[in-house]
Amino acid sequence: MSSSRAAFGQLTYSLTPALRLTAGIRRTLDEKSRKGFDTVGSPVRVRIENDAAVEYAVTNGKVGIDYDLSKTVMLYGSFSTGYKAGGFNNGTVATNPFLYYDPERLSALEAGAKGRFLGGRLQLSASAFSYLYKGLQVSTVAINPATNAQTSQTRNAARAVVRGLEVEGKYAINPQSKLDFGFNYLDGHYETYRPTLTTNWAGYDLDNAPRTGLTLGYTHAWDLSNGGAVSANVNTKYSASYVMSDFSAPLQVRQDAFHKTNARLTYSAPGDKWMVQAYVKNIENKDVMVNYNNFAGGIVWLAQPRTYGVRFSTGF
After folding, report:
1. Where's it found, cell-wise (predicted)?
2. Cys-Cys link to 280, which of 82, 99, 304, 308 (CB 3.0-4.6 A)?
3. What is the pTM of this model?
4. 269: closest CA among 308, 234, 315?
5. What domains sit in the chain, N to C, each tagged with a CATH number?
6. CA atoms within 13 A on the CB side of 296
């Protein structure tokens, strides 16, 4: 059982018509409890009660500043803190030190700019950020010592940091054609973390954190004489390589860099009364790893292969 209660507020004050300060605060009370048991022993099975309860009372906040450099360009910066509640690992005996996992805490610093250019045809945004995690919650599969069976567990890394840069944009080539594009750079790694007593992962990459990524999309729309519309979209994504971890092994495996392309063609009836869409995803049919487990010599979960189909929707 779990319950969460919170009180929060935020205030924005204009120092000048172009300069604004924002401050906010949130108080959260999380309560979690469980009633369970494990059975151990052979040939006689013994029931061991496995009840548990935790309570977390946390205060987080945010301060920020916005400045209108012009009518179409805004600069901003903020510092905020966040929190994710801890909990229990079900299927873990009461004497196991990993029955509980602790809250995850975040300190986030961000600065950036947003603007419209070329008469509004070009929209650009850019941001730089630095996130510090304490007690980062990571998922793993480990052996339950009572049953000798695999169980999914959440554990805490000591400290991790994520720093990066993101740029996104939209450009209207003309009223019917639009480009979307993006770029990101990411450095995410553990500052201090020991998956086991003899293993030190300080400096190791975080999971699913490619150093660079690129996105590019193109959309064209046609207005039809009957009041309907047709639109075509193609978009592609490039991802640098990244790692996946099995914290119980412990080891990391690497997904190679890849690119994936999707396309869709949509017809919308007059008044948007109904819509039909043909689509294809992962045109290159790339094998992309999304999860890994070292059990039984290694098990890999892959994203969907090339997928295509037709969708239909209607409104009432």
Report:
1. Cell outer membrane
2. 308
3. 0.84
4. 315
5. 1-206 (2.40.170.20), 219-316 (no CATH)
6. 4
